[in-house]
Automatic annotation (TrEMBL):
Lineage top rank: taxon: Bacteria
Taxonomic source organism: Candidatus Mycolicibacterium alkanivorans
Protein name in UniProt: Cupin domain-containing protein
Amino acid sequence: MNKVSLTSLAREQLEAARAASSGRSAHTVYGGHEHSLRQTLIALTAGSELDEHESPGEATLQVLHGRVRVASAQAHWEGSTGDHIVIPQSRHGLHALDDSAVLLTVVKSVGPHV
């Protein structure tokens, strides 16, 4: 069993994001390429974003700190601390309205059948 404080990790990643020229920082909390479940804590400074990209598979976003906007060509969703957003299966982007930390959870197929 492994225990991680998301509150502490969010604080650390926000500090790293503030020091980075991109205004972003990320840390894999669980999983990796060999797992079907992957959880990544992403920190973004206010105004920073992840450009529009393809959906990685089934995914959700939990806002741990701040306010963000997830936008696709069809719609957008805003979330603040404590909100849980289902990521659209279409191209989308993520924009930080405030300094923010989110937990991205993705499930995708792995193994020889992929």
